[in-house]
Each structure stands twice: as structure tokens, then as C-alpha cells.
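Q: How do we represent a protein-ligand complex in a form that can be generated cell by cell?
A: Start from the inputs.
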Amino acid sequence: MGFFKRKNNNMSYEVASPNGRIVATFSLQDGQMSYTVKKDEKIIIRKSRIGFELKYDRPIVNNLIAVRTHERQSRDTWESTWGDEKLITDNYNELAVYLSEEDGAKRLVTVRFRAYDDGVAFRYEFPVQNQLKQMAIVDEVTEFAVDINSEAWWIPAYQPDRYEYNYTKTQLSLLTRPVHTPLTIQSTTGHFVSIHEAALYDYGSMTIKRIGDKLVSDITPLSDGIRAYTELPFNTPWRVIMIAHNAIDLLKSHILLNLNEPSKIKDTSWIKPTKFMGIWWALHLNEMTWGSGDRHGATTENAKHYIDQCKRLGIPALLIEGWNKGWDGEWINHGELFKFTEAYPDFDLKKVVKYAKDNGVELIAHHETSADVKNYELQLEDAMKFLQQYGIRYLKTGYVGSRMNKTEYHHSQYGVRHYQKVVELAAKYNLMLDVHEPIKGTGIERTWPNLMTMEGARGQEYEGGALSPSHACILPFTRLLTGGMDYTPGIFDLNNSVKRVASTLARQLAYYVVIYSSMQMVADRPQFYADQPAFKFIKDVPVDFEKTVPLLGSIGEYVAVARKDRNSSSWFVGGLTNEEARRINLYFDFIEEGVTYVAEVYHDGDGAHYRDNQFEVQIQELAVRKGDHLDLYLAPGGGFAIKLRAQ
Ligand code: NOJ
Ligand code: CA
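Then emit the C-alpha cells for the protein with calcium ion bound:
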């Protein structure tokens, strides 16, 4: 636990993780705050300064004294509403340092640290005080001094396509522009570190830039350059440093959820993970259109056809895009034209709702905003009431556009406030959300479990040239550390001439296990699932798990994950490789002792290849028991999926 040292007139306070292996130290030197992080005596983050610069006010950086400290231990287990793990252990030791300026206005700030076995988090808290009522934050200077010679996987920040980029792997010393978090780093000490944030509310999202030999926070500014306007009391998001010995162990962390508050939705019985098909991929292939006309996708007739197919294939829900007015013309630049309570004349919502209900299929509504948040917010509450009146319980939103209202970054305080407003209003109208072009995940779905899933990375909509097989082998160690993703898996029409998909068929199945999403798409047009034995896996795979066991992986090369169904004794395993073929020796150490399981194995055939032999898949059944192992072949751009059914 934390203790207090005084030496050379400097003060430092330590807090160690429950197993004692991770230690964060907070120091004051001549009134300037800093911290360090160590694991097993090795320095992960060397001395890093922290502080704030304010408009109209002196900076809060030096001139500080510690008034008191408070230490606390917490050992807890909580149950998730849905997710990749039912019971989540939340054990940490906490140190709060209450600080005051030594002279002048004597403004107050608290720095709160939590040390977990899988990382360290800290945040700044500004309590109510007469000497400071509001802040216009010009800069939050939080340094993360990891060794600059370490390698990292990053996507650029402040770009027009928000988070939808391919990852680059370089040494941190070569960073020349701000990058998004999570920033995953293979440190020169041999550890895997990922820097991110938790509980992002009412503040700009943190990006990271390099200044000299240090990484420093760069909070996304508003268009006037201010990072955030706040009223006191105010707590910043948690600054989080995940630390693991192996890349695959990063996937075991629930630190982001643990740093968020329990559910604010009291009755969560209406919240249900689901799989869904969509009037969707046909739009992206330009076989149908979002807008009105001969090829309009969201017609009453076509919706009924898709509902029939959902029923036939056993997929419980259907997304319908292009149902509402506003898509005609250049919709990307004309978000002001979207009407969220007016359907196109050839789409009879009442009839479609009834038909869906009669056939036991849930509808998922869609609100594309083209990032015109002003237009959306004007209609928001009416739009949600409208859906509730029709008994619609799921909603996909979208924010295509390089800036909100053509001025503000999606990941600025403006964007953060908007996304939160939608989440809370959706909760009021019992709507579950799948947010595309979202703010990054920071674990708030623990508090708002109607926030089912998000996009927030390059997904399969970029197939047709802009996705390589290595991308999905990076995502689990980066974007997916922050929560579920709507990657839109399950494309079976792999060699389509408009969008060729860089994948084998078995790999499409693997995505359902590797890339968790509590709303999981079955993304292709229904006719492509007919007569496909591999479709059985998609039908069987659940969207809510009791337990997750990340098995093996190397960032950008391969990954394999096992998950146990929350509602049965079955296990599901998925694995991916990059452009390289490889063999994986899978040990069934995770299944229950003494039970024989029937393994339904879907894997690449010997000649399979993501470029020119995508459909060669082998489906086998074999009996396995705990301790058995299986040697699996993964083709270039391939993968495997296994269902284990207890006998
Ligand atoms: C981008 C979304 O990611 C995609 O899923 C959607 O179909 C289009 N925008 C249109 O809203
Ligand atoms: Ca998108």
C-alpha cells in the first residue's frame, strides 16, 4: 500500500497494485507534480510531469503542496449486464493526494491514483471552491514518458475519417503527428503497454503527441482552441496505462470498465444483445440505394423479404438503412436534409413494423446524421419518441463527415457531449445503440449498458482494397481493448467484383469470436447464406459471454480467443492470421475437466488463400477433452472457428 516518504525536501507517495508488482509514485518537487510507473522494479513510465494551463488564470502546475493523502483498498466483483465476461473482478489500491497552491489564490486539486494488477490509472479532480468556479482549459499537460525507442501501433488523430484508418507500426521516436489512443506500445523493457482513457464525459478526448523524448497528452480542442470548458466540481477522465507481460494478456484487462460507475439504468431487463442482418451490404455494393428511386433499398416489399430471410436463417433482428427522408443528392454534405420522423413514401413503416412483429423479428432503425449534429439534436427527442411509439428498440446512428456541423471534431468536448446526450436520451426511450463514427470507447457502457456497440475503427465497409488481413490482427490489441466493435462480419460473397473481401470463408466466422460485439451483424445479403454449411456457425455463435480466455497472439500477425456462452455450457473459439499462412497448436485447457465436448471445427482448406481461393473451407467434428490439443492450419488471410458442445 501507499506510504509516505520525505527526502531532500521532496515528497513522494507510492501506491502498489494488489499483487505488489505494479507501483505508481506521485511526487512533488518544488511544487511541481510528476509521477512514475514501475512493474517488477522495471521503469515503464519514467518521471512524467502533470499540470493544467487555464485561460484567464495562472496555470496549475507548480506552487503546489500536498495538504493530505488518503489511501484505500477495494476488492470487488460485479456482474455485467452483457459482455465478454459475466463476473468482473475489480481489485485495486487507491491513493488520493489533496493538493493546494502554496500561495496566491490557493486553488485546490486532487490527484487520484488507482493501481491494479493490470495497470495504473489516475485522474484530476477539481473540488468546489470559492477561488475557482469554472475553467477554460487551454492545455492539460500529462506526460507519459515511456522509452521513446519502443515500438508502437498507431492511427493518426485529427483526420477526416476520424478513427477509420489503417495502423502504422513505428518507433515512438518517429512520431511526427498526434495519434489516437489506445496507443499500444511494445516497450523496450519487454512489456506491452497501452495508453488510453476511461470515463470520458464532458471533456475533449485525449490524443498523444511526441515532444522531444516524451509522449504528452493532446486534448482534442474545440474550434476556438480551448480543450474544455468546465464548471466545478469536475473530474477529468481517467488516464489509463494498461501493462501486460505478453500482448495477448492485454486482452484480459477490464480496467476500463472497472474505472466506470455501475449502471445508472436501474431496470436493465429490456437490454438484450442480438445478431442482425441488414438492408446494408447491398447499399455499399451499389446494388440498391439509400436514396429514393428505382433501386431504393428500404421499400416495404424489400423489408418484408429481408424479414422473411431473418426468420428463415434464425437471425433475430433487421437493420434498415435509407428508410427516412434526406438521402437524395449529396447526403454526405447535406445532413440538414435528414428527417428522422418521416419515412420515404415507398416505405410503410407501420406495415413493416407489424410484419416484423408477426414474424418475431426486431427492427433496428437507422439515423445517419452526416455529422450535422445541430439538425439531429433539434429532432432528437421527437425521433426517439417516434421509434418508441412504433415499438422499435434498437437504433444505429452514424456521423459521416470530417467535422460535426463542419466545425468541431467528433472527439472534441462538443462531440463527447453530443454522444452522451444521445446515450442518455436513448436510455429514457428504452433504445439500444450501435454508434458508427462514434467517440472512442472508454468503458461507459458499464454505466449506460444501452450503449451496445460502436464502430470507431476501420471495419469491413472498407473492403474492396483498403483492408489487409493484418488489420484485424492489430485490432484486438488496440481498438478492441476499449470495448465491442461493429466490424460488420459475415460477408460470404467474398469475390464480388465491386468489393472483393480480403478474407477466406473460415475467417469470416472467426470474426464473431475474436471481435466481440453485443450487437453482431450478419452483414451479407441473405441469398449468399443459402446452402452454405458454414452458416451454421454464425447461427450458433452467441453475442453474450460468460467468460473470455484470450489464448495466443502477436500484434499484427495472429490472434486466437476462446469464449464461453453466457446461456449454455458451449465454448466458441476463433483465430485469425495476417497475410502469412501458419499453423496454430490449440490447447483445450480452458474447457471443463471430465467433460467430453463435440468440437465443430471450421478451418481453411490446404489450398485456401484470401486472394484467389477464398471458399475452401473444411468442416469437421471431433471429440475433445480438457488438455487435448489441435494442430490447425490457417491459410494466408485465413482463420478458424470452433464450437465446443458439451456432451
Ligand atoms: C457509415 C457507416 O459506418 C455505415 O455502416 C453506414 O452504412 C453508412 N455510414 C451510411 O450511414
Ligand atoms: Ca464508418
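Residues 1-9 have pLDDT under 50 and may be disordered. The chain is about 15% helix and 35% strand.
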